[in-house]
Write a structure and sequence with these properties.
The chain is of the alpha/beta class. The chain contains 17 helices and 13 strands.
């Protein structure tokens, strides 16, 4: 088959907001650079310009959106968003007070409606040589209804987390949990190939899905090395950026869910970002991610509070970057910081992806104590910006953090070990030479093994094998 004729339809059930959307965007661009034609069918929310709007988020790509805006508006008016003409997508996480209810709460009627609207969208696109389906969801069944075109099912780990919970708790995690377990297992078994993002997910997929182990490929996510690069602004410019994000355009939010409900003053920045004794900038700790339970953001804040008792007046600020507005599981991180009365925690809110490389270059260490993180693309993005990373000994980050004990690129701690996390924060803050050394190692690893063009070649080889 001529390379120029290889066509793929890629699907993403959700509107852009999480890591899989970033993967779809970067991978599609890299595939097109390698001569693969890609049409991206995906969810969308809001008007052009919003970060959740598919046309905005995936600008420059061939995008066919499924617009959830009406369904969410109905939810805000007290109606059921799952009965809208285009129902909002379900979620792998069970969170109260949100329109995208957990999969395990959706009955057969809601499931069939989800499949029907996706089949309608896919019918508007010419049949490709291969379907590339992100996640195991109802979309897999919509694709199956279209015929026997080969399917690559690309698992990102969140579906495996839900299936693992169903295995442990059964119908206690939702009245329709067992039905969804059967559907997703069947989708995995129908797929021509399964792709997982880490060795840990490969082992979990074997346990949960009942598939032939030889049908599973491990392909790590990549990082855009041109966007995420080392470009440290001078101290004055770094402070100007933090002032913009935290004072001039505050987007942090509390339990109201309103962006800007948490804001700061110039005095707050002066007190925490500048050492009064020397006038020098203090190192900045940065967390990036959503406020999901496995991310352990409240734990991070407790460990930071513990580290501050040791570091005293030299304690650095901790910037919490992210948290999709109104979305959190368990204790809200801002409430945790307030309850502890801890100084130095700054909530920057949900920001556009264009700001993230700048923020990483304005920070000095990246810390995210997730437990069983499916992959952890943002850790790689931090490494590409030459930041040392602090993570736990679990999940996907074990694939690329401290894989060479003689040349560490970060600090690994026991999952949920608050004392160890505090100690790692103290070690990173108090040793600038070691920070720089480990950060440099991280950049080297990103350059050698995680360029998106390398990742795209692996997928292209799979497509060609299935399409011939």
């Amino acid at each position: 088959m001529s390379e120029r004729l290889l066509r793929v339809v890629m699907t993403l059930a959700f509107y852009p907001r999480g890591g899989s959307a970033q993967v779809a965007r970067y991978l599609t661009r890299a595939l097109e650079a390698r001569g693969v034609g890609v049409t991206l069918c995906c969810g969308s929310l809001g008007c052009p310009g919003a970060s959740s709007h598919a046309g905005t988020f995936f600008a420059g790509l061939d995008v066919r959106p499924l617009d959830f805006t009406d369904a969410v508006a109905r939810f805000e008016q007290g109606e059921d968003p799952m009965t809208a003409p285009v129902p909002v997508h379900p979620s792998f996480e069970d969170r109260p007070g949100v329109p995208d209810r957990v999969f395990t709460s959706l009955d057969d009627t809601a499931y069939r409606r989800q499949v029907a609207v996706w089949r309608g969208l896919l019918d508007t696109v010419d049949r490709p040589h291969v379907y590339h389906v992100h996640h195991l969801t109802h979309v897999n069944d919509a694709v199956a209804a279209l015929g026997d075109t080969p399917v690559v099912a690309h698992l990102h780990g969140t579906e495996l987390k839900m299936l693992d919970t169903i295995r442990s708790t059964g119908s206690r995690c939702g009245p329709h949990a067992l039905a969804w377990q059967q559907r997703l297992r069947a989708a995995a078994q129908r797929a021509s190939r399964l792709v997982v993002v880490s060795a840990a997910d490969q082992a979990l997929a074997r346990e949960l899905l009942g598939v032939d182990p030889d049908s599973i490929d491990v392909i790590h996510n990549g990082v855009d090395l041109a966007r995420f690069t080392v470009d440290r602004p001078p101290v004055e410019q770094r402070l100007a950026w933090w002032r913009r994000w935290l004072v001039q355009d505050p987007q942090g939010w509390d339990t109201t869910g309103v962006p800007g409900s948490v804001s700061y003053s110039d005095g707050d920045l002066q007190r925490h970002f500048i050492d009064p004794a020397t006038g020098e900038a203090r190192p900045v700790l940065l967390y990036v991610g959503r406020f999901l339970a496995f991310k352990r953001v409240p734990l991070l804040i407790r460990a930071y509070a513990r580290a501050r008792t040791v570091l005293g007046s030299s304690a650095p600020p901790l910037v919490i970057w992210g948290g999709y507005p109104g979305e959190w599981e368990g204790d809200h991180p801002h409430s945790t910081a307030q309850a502890l009365g801890v100084d130095g925690v700054f909530f920057a809110g949900w920001r556009g992806h264009n700001d993230l490389p700048v923020a990483l270059n304005c920070a000095d260490a990246f810390v995210a104590p997730s437990v069983d993180e499916p992959f952890g693309q943002v850790y790689l993005e931090a490494m590409a910006c030459r930041l040392p990373v602090i993570a736990t000994r679990s999940g996907g980050p074990l694939s690329f953090i401290n894989t060479n004990p003689t040349r560490p690129n970060g600090w690994l701690v026991t999952p949920d070990a608050e004392h160890e996390l505090a100690d790692a924060i103290i070690a990173a803050v108090t040793d600038p030479i070691e920070r720089d050394r480990r950060g440099s190692e991280g950049r080297t690893i990103a350059e050698q093994d995680y360029d998106w063009l390398q990742i795209a070649k692996k997928f292209k080889d799979i497509y060609r094998g299935l399409a011939t």
